[in-house]
Amino acid sequence: MLHSVLRRWSADSVCGSRCRRLGRSSRGSPPYTHATSTLASPLVRQQREQAVSLERVIDGLEIDSLASLGFHGPDDIRGLVASERVRSAALVTVPIGSTLAVSLDGDGGQLSVLAPPGMPPNVKKAIEVVAGLIRETPDHQLLILAVLLLWARKYGSTAWREYCEAMLPPAREMSCLLCYTPGELSTLQLPHLVDEAARQHDWARWAHSQWLSSSSGALRRLGLADALEDTVWALAVVRSRAVGFQVGMAAGSGSGFKAGHDSGPDSVRLGRARRLPTGPVVSVLAPVVDLANHNNDPNCVIQLTTDKSRVVLLPRRPVGPGEPLTVDYGFDRSSLELMADYGFVTQANPYDGEVELAGADKLPSLELSRLEAAARALLRRHHQRPQRHSAATAPRRPGLTAAGDIPSSSGGKGDGCGEGMDVAGEGAATQEEEQEGGGSAAEVVTMFGKGVAISGTGAGAGDEADFSSRLRAAVAFLAPRTASFPGQPANSGNFSTPATQRIIAGLWHKLLRHCIESLPTSLEQDRALLEDIIAGAVVGFTAGLSLSLDPDAVSGPTSAFEPPPRPRPAAGGSAPVSPSKPEGAVQLRMTSERKAVGAVPGEIMQAAAVAVAAGERNVIPGGGTDENGESVGRGTAARRAGSATSSIGSGGAASAGVRGAAKAAAMNESAAVPPELTHGSRGTQDGGSNGESVATASTVVPYGIVGSSGSDVSDARSRHAVGTADVICRTGRRAGRLYAAVRARLEHKELLTVAEQVLVQYARN
Ligand SMILES: C[S@@+](CC[C@H](N)C(=O)[O-])C[C@H]1O[C@@H](n2cnc3c(N)ncnc32)[C@H](O)[C@@H]1O
Q1: Residue 132 has what pLDDT?
Q2: pTM recorded for the entire structure
Q3: Nearest-CA neighbor of 129 among 232, 211, 233?
Q4: Which of 182, 181, 201 is CA-nearest to residue 483?
Q5: Cβ distance 407 to 391 under 8 Å?
Q6: What does the alpha-carbon distance between residue 470 and residue 755 come to, in Å, rounded to a whole number?
Q7: What is the pLDDT of residue 63?
Q8: Measured between alpha carbons, how far is residue 30 from residues 26, 34, 271 in Å?
Q9: How many angstroms does the Cα of residue 175 sit away from the middle of ligand 1?
Q10: CA distance 152 to 137
Q11: How far is ligand 1, taken at its centre, from the CA of residue 190, in Å?
Q12: For a pocket test of ligand 1, which of 50, 294, 327, 650 has the largest count of ligand atoms closer than 8 A to its C-beta?
C-alpha cells in the first residue's frame, strides 16, 4: 500500500486547536471537553492532545492563526482547517523569526542562515561554514535546514521542542520515500520509485556520515544526530514541509497559483522550484503553515511578505469554518513525481499525461491473470495475421509493419530482419476482431513463475515463437515485480492500489506523449527521421529492426501522402525506399548495429539513450511540439523537462536538483524563467489560467513510458477513453512518428511495443 507508512487518523474527529490572533484572540471554548475526551478512543485522544500541542506552539512562536488542526480527505490526513469564515485575511501568519530559514543569494553564491533564537553565534558560524562547503551539492539548502531543525529539537526553545516532538511526525509516519524502510520498499511496486527511494537513502547516508553524525560528521560536536535515523527524520521533514520562496523578481503572471490577496507578498511555491532560480531564494520551515496539505485545486497559497518579515497562508478564495486548507505542492507534478517527492498521490491528477482514462479509479487491478489473458488474445490475432497480410490477398494496412509481416516481395521474414512486429496489422486486426469470440489458432499456455509461456501452434510457428517470447517478456515487464531487493520475496500480487494503477496509466500515456512531442512536426521531417533511422543515425537501433511506412495511411483516408518521399541515402546497407505510390508501401529497412552519425535526430536519440542508460527518469533532450503541434525549441522542451525533473528537495525550492540533460538544457533557459515567481505577484482570486506549458513535461523512465497530447491523441481519447494507444497506432501519419520514436528512443523497444499492446488489450478485456 502506497500509504502504508502514512499514519491514518480517525475520520470522526476534527480537532480544533484554539486560534491565536495577535491583538484579537479568537480563543474560546475548545471544541471538546475533558469529559468527552476521557470517553474517546485512544486515537481521538491523541488527536486532541495534538491540538493542544499545536496551541502551545502557536502561542510559543507567536503565530497568528485562524486555522486549526483537522483531519480530512479520504484518508483523514492530518492538516489544517479554517476556524472561521475568512475572505481574504491571512489564515496563518508566522513571523520569520519563528521559522527556520536558509537563503541563497541570486548569484548562486552565499548561503546564509536564519538561526533559531538562542543559537550561539559560533554555532551559527559553524553551520554557515558547512553551508559554504556544500553549496555545490544538490539540495544543500535542505541539508542546512535539517541541521537547524536538529539543533532546534535538541537545544531550541520550549515551543520549538514541542513542535519537533509533538507536531512533527516521526519518520515511520512520514510518507516520503526517504522514510520507507528496506522492508517496506516492496510496497512501492514500481521499480522507478524503488530506485528513487534508494537514491534518497544514499543522500541521507552521505549527509549523516559527512556532516551530521555525532560520531563522524563535521558537526559532530553539536551532537545533533546520534543515529542515521535522526538524519533521515530531519531530511524527511524538510523535504516534505519546507517552503521555497523566490524573491525580488518583477511582477508577472503565469503558471502556479496566484495569490488572492493584496498584501504584496513575494511569490512562493511549496516544494521544489519548478524553474531554476534567477533571484535570491529562501527555504523556510514555517510551523503551522507546514500543516497544510496538498490539493490540485487548492484554496490557499503560502507567501512571504515583501519585507520578508512573515510567512503567510492566504486564502485564494473565501473559506468557511471547518473547511480544509490546502495548497498546491505540485506545480504540475504527475502522480509519479508526487509519489517520488512526497510519497502520496491524489485522485484524478490532471498532470498524469493529460489523457484521462474514464473511470481510471475504477480500473480493475493490474492482475497477472488478466495480463496473460490479454497476451493470449494478442497471440490469437497474431496467428491470424499471415492471411491478412499475404501479398496476394490482403489489402494494404496503414502504418508501420515489420519485415516479417510484410508481403514476400519485400523480403519477408527470410531476410534476417524479422525482429519487428506488426503495429498496424495489430491495429487493423483489433478493429476487425472487436467481437472476436476467440482466436482461430490454438495455443498452449503454460505458467512458470510470474510470467507466462505462450507457444503458438497455428500458422507461421517460427514467427509466433518470436512474438510469443515478446509477449512473455511483456507480461513479465508489466506484471508486478518487486523483488529488487535481496532477501525480499518476489511479489506475486497485483498492482493493486488505485494509486499505483493511476501511476501506471499516467506512465503509459506519458510514453505516447513524449514520443509525439519530441519529434519533428512535418511529414517531411518525419520521413527524414525515418531515413535517419534507416541510415543508422539513430542510436539504439541495433536489433535489426525493419520498418515499413505505408503511404496510403500517413494522411488518413482523405488526404494524400505528399510530398513523395525523399530518396533514401544509398549508404548504410539499408533496403531502398520505394517511390511513393498509392498502392505500395514505402519500405524502410535497416540492418543491425548501425551507429549514430550525428544527425539531429540522432543527437536527440543519443541524448535520450545516454540519459536512459544513466537512469535518468526525465528526459526531453530535443525540441518537440507543443500542445498545438507548434514546433518548440530544445530549450523549451528541456525547460519543460526541467520543470518536472527537479530531484529531491521537495521543500527546497532553492535547491532544485534538476539532473542530467534536462538540467543542462534548462540552465540555458534560466533567463526565460516565467515571471509568476515574482515579487509582488498578485494574482486573481480564482487562480486564473495556467498559460504555461509546463504541464506538458514528459517523463521517461528506463523501459519507459510516455504520453502525448497531440491532437490525434485527443481525438482518439474522446472516441476511445480507454485503449488510446491502439487508436493512435491507426492514425497513420502520427503512427509513423510515434513508433519510430518509441523504437528509437527506448531500450527494449519491441518489448515496450508489445507491452503496450498487452495493456491496451488488458483494458479491453
Ligand atoms: C507539509 S506536510 C502536511 C501536513 C501533514 N499531513 C501532517 O500531518 O503533518 C506534507 C505531507 O502531508 C501528506 N499529505 C499532504 N497532502 C496530502 C494529500 N493530498 N494526500 C495524502 N497525503 C498528503 C504527505 O505525507 C506529505 O508528505
Answers
A1: 86
A2: 0.52
A3: 211
A4: 182
A5: yes
A6: 8
A7: 97
A8: 11, 10, 33
A9: 8
A10: 24
A11: 21
A12: 294
Q: Would you call 719 exposed, middle or buried from its count of C-beta atoms within 10 A (0-12, 13-18, 19+)?
A: exposed
CA 170 to ligand 1 center in whole angstroms:
13
526-551 tens-digit pLDDT: 555 556 555 655 443 332 333 333 32
CA of 292, closest atom in ligand 1: 3
Q: How far is the CA of 544 from the centre of ligand 1 (A)?
A: 49
Instruction: For 413-467, give the DSSP string.
Output: GGGS-TT---HHHHHHHHHHTTT-SS-SS-EEEEEETTEEEEEE-SS-HHHHHHH
In the block, residue with C-alpha cell 495489430: 426
At 506 the pLDDT is 59
Position 531 scores a pLDDT of: 62
Distance CA 654, CA 280 (A): 8
* pLDDT recorded at residue 291: 96
* Residue 670 identity (one-letter amino acid): S
Residue 402: predicted pLDDT: 23
Please report the sign of the dihedral spanned by the C-alpha atoms of residue 361, residue 364, residue 368, residue 372: negative
Q: How do strand 624-625 and strand 586-589 relate by DSSP bridges?
A: unpaired
- Class of residue 259 by CB neighbours under 10 A (exposed 0-12, middle 13-18, buried 19+): buried
Tell me, in angstroms, the distance from the centre of ligand 1 to residue 298's CA: 13
Task: Please give the grid coordinates belonging to residue 81.
Answer: 482547517
- Rounded Cα–Cα distance for residues 423 and 753 (Å): 8
Regions in the chain scoring below 70 on pLDDT: 1-40, 74-75, 105-109, 187, 189-191, 248-279, 330-331, 347-350, 352-367, 385-465, 476-753, 755-756, 759-760, 762-765
pLDDT in tens, 15-55: 333 344 333 333 333 333 333 445 667 777 888 889 999 99
Closest ligand 1 atom number to CA of residue 175: 25
* Residue tagged 503560502 (cell numbers): 302
User: How confident is the model at residue 752, as a pLDDT?
Assistant: 57
Mention every residue, 6+ apart, whose C-beta is less than 8 A from residue 617.
192, 196, 645, 699, 700, 701, 702
Q: How many CA atoms lie within 13 A of 586 on its CB side?
A: 27
Alpha-carbon span 263 to 301, nearest angstrom: 13
Handedness of CA 629, 630, 635, 640 (dihedral sign): negative
Q: Rounded to an integer, what distance in angstroms lies between the CA atom of residue 328 and that of residue 336?
A: 16
